[in-house]
C-alpha cells in the first residue's frame, strides 16, 4: 500500500490498532531492498564437449571498436535480458584481447599481459573464451548477432580469424576463431572454437586464460585448452599455450536456485538477547542472520543450522532490523525475505525524588534523594513543597511525575530532556520561560495541570512513539515532533490546542485519535517537511479584524461555508445578489462572497466596475475550494474556525481568464496552507504561468473602506502571506489563461512572525516611496524604482496596478492604468517625470511625504511639482508637502528626477514685479520684467498641469516686455517658471 494511503486508513483503527499500524508504517518507510538470488560464478557447473563450429552469418552488428590492438568496445545490446549470477544484464562490452564483459564500464587493463580472473583486472562480470594479447590480421572480424525469438533467444559474439599470439617478434604465427553463446531461457554460457592455420609460438608469448569471473569476486578457470580440462575456483590459470580443437565446446550452466527460509520472526528474550525463528528451506541446513541497531548500526552477522538462532550482545532499549538467507552447499545464496524488527526492552530505570533540601536548582545534587543528579535512566518524582525545582541550562532525566500541588519551572532558554513519560496531575503546574524546551521521549498525560508558557516556549517530542492524553485539555505555544530523530509518531488522544506553531519534520507523523482533537488557534501555523504528515481532522481558527471586510482562505479540505458560524459572525449567502440590478438592497444581504471577473461588464467607474466581480455562493453547504479566496463581511472582531484534513499537497488553480475591460482579469485566490506562503517563490516558479508577478492584499480601514497593498519583485508588501489570507492576482493577457501552483517549496519552514519577519535582502536599486495621508484616517503609498530590464510601459515582472478603492486617500502613478508600484529603466542623465494621480475621499488638508528615498545616484535631485501652485519642492531637503484639495480628484502633482538643480523660489517682492499678460492669452503673451532683469538672457519653462515641460524659452536681453510664443500650445491652464539670479518666479497662465 502506498504510504500516504496507508496513513489515511490508520485513523479508523482503535488506539491499540493504530499503534501497531504505526509500527508497521515506520517499518515500511525504512525497508531496505531485499537482495536478489545470488548464484556466484564458482557455483556454475562446467562441461567440455564437442560439436560443430559454424561461422556466424546472420549478423546483427560489427564490433569495429576492437579492430585495433588492446582496445575495448562501446556497449552493445544483448537483445534480451540475460541473467548471470542472479542479476540481469542487457548490454555487453568486448575486447580485442578475447574477453566479453556484462558491465558497461569495462576497459582493457593497462598491461595486456595482465589476464588473471582474480582481482577484477577487468570490470566483472567477465567471460573469457580466449583472453590473451591477440592481433588483427587480414581476414579478422568481430561480429555479433541476436538469434531466435523470445523466450528462447541467443546472443552469439564471434572473433573470426584473429592472430595469436599478439605482438610476436615477426607476426602472429597462428590463427584462431572462437564464439560466446548466451542463452536467454537457461542462462547457459558456452564457448566454441576453431583453430586456423599456423603453429602458435614462441612459447614465451603463449599465455591465454579461459574461464569466467563474477561480480561477487568468484571465478572459474580452466587448467588448459584440452578436451578434458580441470576447473578451479581458487587458482586462475593464465599460461594456456594451445588452441582448443575444432568443434571444442566449453559450457557453463547456472546452479540450481537456493531456496530461502520462510516465516521469519524475532523475539527479544532479555534487554541484550533475542531469538530468531524461521521455517527452514527444503534440503538446506546452513543459514546466515544479519541484524543491526536501526539508530547506531553496524550490520552484524551470525550463522546457524536450525531454527531458532540466538542473538547476543544487543543494545537495551533499541530497535533492530533482522534478515536471514540460506547459504547452499553449491555456494549459492537465497533471496532475503523482508526484514523483521524487534525492540529490546530497556534496562530498568532507577527512581529518585526531589527534596529541595539545598535550593531550587535542579542541577544541585543535594536536592535529590539519591544525592546525585538525574540521568537518562533516572525516573524523577516531584512532590509539593516549599522549594520547587527550577531548570537552568540543559538537563536530562528519564520519566517525570509531578504530584498534586507540585511546580516545575524552566528558566528562559533552559532545556529539559526527558527520555520517558510525563504525568501532570490536577493542581500541578508547569512554567516555561522564553525560549525554553521541554523534550518528552514518551507520552504526556495531563489530568488538569496549569501550564504557564511563554510564547516562544516549546514542547518537543522525539525518539519513538508518543501520545498526548489525559482528562484535561492541553494548550501549548509550540509543539514540535521529529527534530531529534527520524520517523517519530505522536497520537493526539485528548483535546490539544496550539497557539503559535505545530511543526513535524524528518518523516514524522501526527495522528488525531478517536478521543482527541487538534486545534490551531488564531495566529497559529503548521509547518511540515515533505515527508511528514498531520493526519486526521484539524480545526484552524482565523480572526476577522472587523468591522468590515476580511479576505479569507480555508487551510483545510472538505470544510463547508456553514462552519464559519461563530460568535460575532453569521455566514449568509443569497444567490439573488448575483442577478439583482440593485444588489446592495437584497435581503438578506450576503456576508460571504467569492469573486468572478467575468461579471465585470462596464467601464464607467473603476471602483464600481471592480466591485461587480464579487458574487455570493448559492448555499452554505458548499465546500471551500483549496486555493480560492473569499470575502467575509463581519460586523466586528470575530474568530471563525473550520475543521478538516489540512491541505498539504500541491494545489493548482488553473484556467484563470481575463476579459478586455480595464478592471478585468483579477482573481481572488488564497493561501491554501496553515503555513506562511512566500509569494516571491510562487510568482517566479515555473508552475506559475500567464499571471502578473504582483499580489494585492486588502488592508481594512473601517467598516466600509480599505486599501490594497501591493508587492512585486521585492518591492512593497506583504511578501509573506499568512495562513487564512486571501489576495488578488491578475491574468496578464486576455489571450492567455493563467495558472498557479501552490507547492511545498513556497511554504516557510518555520514560524513566520509578522512582527519580526525574515531579514530582507538590502535594497540596492534607486527607489522612492510616496505616502499620501489626510489629517485623519488611513494613508496610501506608491513606489517607483529603477532596474535594468524594466521599461516605461507596464511590465508584468516589475509593475503592480493600483486597485480601485473608495472613501480613502488614493495615490498612484498616472498612466493607461494607474500603478501602485512602477518599475522603470535604470536612471541615466535624462530627466524622468512621473505624473501622480492624487485623490482624496473629499476636500481637506493632505500631505505628500517621500517616506523612502534610497540609492539615488550622486548628483540626482528629486523634486515634487505642484502645477496648481507652481511649487517645486526638493524632497531631499523637505520630504513632506502639505496641500489642500478642494475636489476629490486632481491631476496636479508629478515627481521629477533630474541632474539639474532647480533654484529656490524668488522673493515675493520680485515676483510682484513680474507680469504676464494678457491672461488668458492666445498666440502670444508678454512678459514684463523689472529693470534689473533686462540686462541678461533668461530661461522660462512652460509646464502643463502634470508638471511636464511643454516648452522651454530662451529670452534675449531687451528693454521692453519679452514675447512668449504660444502659437502651438493647446488651450488649458499652465505655469510659466522664470529662472532668475534671485530665484524662480512662477506665474499661472491660461491659454485659449
TrEMBL record:
Superkingdom of this protein's organism: Bacteria
Per its UniProt record, what Pfam families does this chain match? fn3
The answer to whether keyword Signal applies is yes
For the keyword Lyase, the answer is no
Annotated InterPro entries: FN3_dom (IPR003961), FN3_sf (IPR036116), Ig-like_fold (IPR013783)
- Kindly state which keywords UniProt assigns to this record, in alphabetical order: Signal
Q: Any idea what this protein is called?
A: Fibronectin type III domain protein
The species this protein belongs to is Hymenobacter chitinivorans DSM 11115
Amino acid at each position: 500500500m502506498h504510504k500516504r494511503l496507508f496513513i489515511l486508513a490508520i485513523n479508523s483503527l482503535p488506539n491499540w490498532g493504530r499503534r501497531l499500524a504505526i509500527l508497521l508504517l515506520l517499518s515500511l518507510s525504512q525497508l531496505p531492498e531485499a537482495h536478489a538470488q545470488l548464484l556466484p560464478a564458482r557455483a556454475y557447473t562446467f562441461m567440455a564437449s564437442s560439436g560443430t563450429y559454424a561461422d556466424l552469418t546472420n549478423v546483427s552488428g560489427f564490433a569495429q571498436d576492437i579492430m585495433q590492438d588492446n582496445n575495448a568496445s562501446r556497449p552493445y545490446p544483448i537483445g534480451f535480458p540475460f541473467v548471470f549470477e542472479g542479476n540481469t544484464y542487457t548490454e555487453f562490452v568486448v575486447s580485442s584481447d578475447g574477453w566479453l564483459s556484462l558491465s558497461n564500464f569495462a576497459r582493457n587493463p593497462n598491461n595486456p599481459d595482465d589476464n588473471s580472473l582474480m582481482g577484477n583486472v577487468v570490470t566483472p562480470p567477465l567471460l573469457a573464451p580466449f583472453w590473451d594479447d591477440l592481433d588483427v590480421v587480414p581476414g579478422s572480424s568481430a561480429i555479433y548477432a541476436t538469434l531466435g525469438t523470445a523466450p528462447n533467444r541467443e546472443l552469439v559474439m564471434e572473433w573470426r580469424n584473429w592472430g595469436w599470439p599478439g605482438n610476436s617478434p615477426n607476426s602472429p604465427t597462428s590463427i584462431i576463431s572462437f564464439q560466446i553463446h548466451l542463452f536467454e531461457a537457461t542462462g547457459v554460457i558456452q564457448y566454441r572454437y576453431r583453430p586456423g592455420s599456423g603453429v602458435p609460438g614462441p612459447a614465451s608469448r603463449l599465455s591465454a586464460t579461459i574461464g569466467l569471473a563474477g561480480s561477487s569476486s568468484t571465478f572459474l578457470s580452466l587448467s588448459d585448452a584440452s578436451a578434458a580440462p580441470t576447473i578451479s575456483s581458487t587458482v586462475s590459470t593464465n599460461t594456456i599455450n594451445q588452441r582448443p580443437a575444432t568443434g571444442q565446446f566449453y559450457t557453463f550452466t547456472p546452479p540450481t536456485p537456493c531456496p530461502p527460509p520462510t516465516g521469519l520472526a524475532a523475539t527479544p528474550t532479555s534487554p541484550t538477547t533475542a531469538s530468531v525463528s524461521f521455517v527452514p528451506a527444503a534440503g538446506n541446513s546452513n543459514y546466515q542472520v544479519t541484524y543491526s541497531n536501526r539508530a547506531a548500526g553496524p550490520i552484524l552477522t551470525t550463522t546457524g543450522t536450525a531454527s531458532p538462532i540466538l542473538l547476543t550482545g544487543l543494545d537495551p532499549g533499541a530497535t533492530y532490523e533482522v534478515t536471514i538467507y540460506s547459504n547452499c552447499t553449491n555456494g549459492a545464496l537465497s533471496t532475503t525475505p523482508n526484514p523483521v524488527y524487534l525492540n529490546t526492552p530497556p534496562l530498568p530505570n532507577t527512581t529518585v525524588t526531589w527534596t529541595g533540601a539545598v535550593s531550587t536548582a535542579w542541577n544541585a545534587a543535594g536536592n535529590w534523594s539519591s544525592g546525585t543528579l538525574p540521568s537518562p535512566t533516572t525516573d524523577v518524582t516531584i512532590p509539593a513543597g516549599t522549594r520547587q525545582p527550577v531548570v537552568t541550562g540543559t538537563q536530562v532525566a528519564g520519566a517525570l511525575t509531578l504530584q498534586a500541588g507540585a511546580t516545575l519551572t524552566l528558566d528562559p532558554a533552559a532545556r529539559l530532556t526527558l527520555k520517558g513519560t510525563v504525568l501532570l496531575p490536577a493542581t500541578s503546574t508547569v512554567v516555561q520561560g522564553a525560549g525554553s524546551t521541554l523534550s518528552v521521549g514518551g507520552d504526556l498525560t495531563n489530568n488538569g495541570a496549569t501550564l504557564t508558557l511563554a510564547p516562544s516556549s516549546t514542547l518537543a517530542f522525539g525518539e519513538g512513539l508518543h501520545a498526548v492524553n489525559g482528562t484535561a485539555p492541553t494548550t501549548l505555544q509550540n509543539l514540535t515532533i521529529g527534530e531529534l530523530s527520524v520517523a517519530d509518531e505522536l497520537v493526539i488522544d485528548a483535546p490539544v490546542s496550539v497557539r503559535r506553531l505545530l511543526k513535524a519534520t524528518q518523516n514524522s507523523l501526527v495522528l488525531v485519535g478517536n478521543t482527541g482533537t487538534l486545534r490551531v488557534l488564531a495566529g497559529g501555523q503548521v509547518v511540515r517537511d515533505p515527508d511528514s504528515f498531520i493526519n486526521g481532522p484539524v480545526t484552524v481558527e482565523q480572526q476577522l479584524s472587523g468591522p468590515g471586510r476580511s479576505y479569507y482562505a480555508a487551510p483545510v479540505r472538505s470544510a463547508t461555508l456553514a462552519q464559519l458560524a461563530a460568535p460575532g459572525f453569521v455566514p449568509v449567502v443569497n444567490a439573488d445578489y448575483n442577478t439583482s440590478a440593485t444588489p446592495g438592497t437584497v435581503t438578506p444581504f450576503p456576508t460571504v462572497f467569492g469573486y468572478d471577473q467575468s461579471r465585470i461588464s462596464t467601464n464607467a467607474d473603476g471602483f464600481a466596475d471592480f466591485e461587480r466581480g464579487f458574487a455570493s455562493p448559492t448555499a452554505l453547504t458548499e465546500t471551500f475550494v483549496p486555493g480560492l479566496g473569499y470575502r467575509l463581511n463581519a460586523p466586528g472582531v470575530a474568530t471563525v474556525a473550520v475543521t478538516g484534513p489540512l491541505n498539504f499537497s500541491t494545489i493548482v488553480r488553473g484556467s484563470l481568464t481575463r476579459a478586455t475591460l480595464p478592471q478585468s482579469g483579477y482573481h481572488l485566490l488564497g493561501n491554501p496552507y496553515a503555513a506562511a506562503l512566500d509569494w516571491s517563490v510562487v510568482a517566479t516558479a515555473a508552475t506559475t504561468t500567464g499571471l502578473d508577478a504582483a499580489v494585492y492584499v486588502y488592508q481594512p480601514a473601517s467598516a466600509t473602506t480599505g486599501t490594497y497593498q501591493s508587492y512585486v519583485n521585492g518591492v512593497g508588501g506583504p511578501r509573506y502571506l499568512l495562513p487564512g489570507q486571501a489576495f488578488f492576482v491578475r491574468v496578464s493577457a486576455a489571450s492567455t489563461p493563467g495558472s498557479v501552483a501552490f507547492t511545498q517549496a513556497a511554504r516557510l519552514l518555520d514560524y513566520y512572525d509578522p512582527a519580526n519577519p525574515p531579514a530582507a535582502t538590502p535594497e540596492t536599486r534607486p527607489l522612492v516611496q510616496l505616502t499620501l495621508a489626510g489629517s485623519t484616517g488611513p494613508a496610501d503609498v506608491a513606489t517607483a524604482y529603477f532596474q535594468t530590464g524594466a521599461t516605461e510601459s507596464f511590465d508584468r515582472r516589475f509593475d503592480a496596478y493600483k486597485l480601485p478603492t473608495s472613501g480613502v486617500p488614493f495615490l498612484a502613478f498616472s498612466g493607461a492604468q494607474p500603478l501602485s508600484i512602477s518599475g522603470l529603466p535604470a536612471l541615466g542623465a535624462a530627466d524622468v517625470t512621473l505624473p501622480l494621480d492624487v485623490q482624496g475621499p473629499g476636500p481637506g488638508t493632505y500631505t505628500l511625504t517621500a517616506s523612502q528615498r534610497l540609492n539615488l545616484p550622486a548628483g540626482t535631485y528629486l523634486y515634487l511639482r505642484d502645477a496648481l501652485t507652481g511649487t517645486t519642492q526638493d524632497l531631499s531637503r523637505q520630504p513632506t508637502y502639505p496641500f489642500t484639495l478642494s475636489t476629490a480628484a486632481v491631476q496636479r502633482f508629478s515627481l521629477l528626477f533630474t541632474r539639474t538643480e532647480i533654484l529656490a523660489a524668488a522673493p515675493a517682492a520680485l515676483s510682484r514685479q513680474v507680469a504676464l499678460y494678457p491672461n488668458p492669452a492666445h498666440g502670444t503673451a508678454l512678459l514684463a520684467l523689472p529693470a534689473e532683469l533686462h540686462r541678461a538672457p533668461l530661461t522660462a519653462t512652460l509646464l502643463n498641469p502634470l508638471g511636464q515641460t511643454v516648452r522651454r524659452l530662451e529670452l534675449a536681453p531687451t528693454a521692453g516686455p519679452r514675447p512668449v510664443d504660444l502659437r502651438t500650445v493647446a488651450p488649458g491652464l499652465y505655469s510659466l517658471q522664470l529662472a532668475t539670479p534671485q530665484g524662480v518666479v512662477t506665474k499661472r497662465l491660461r491659454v485659449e
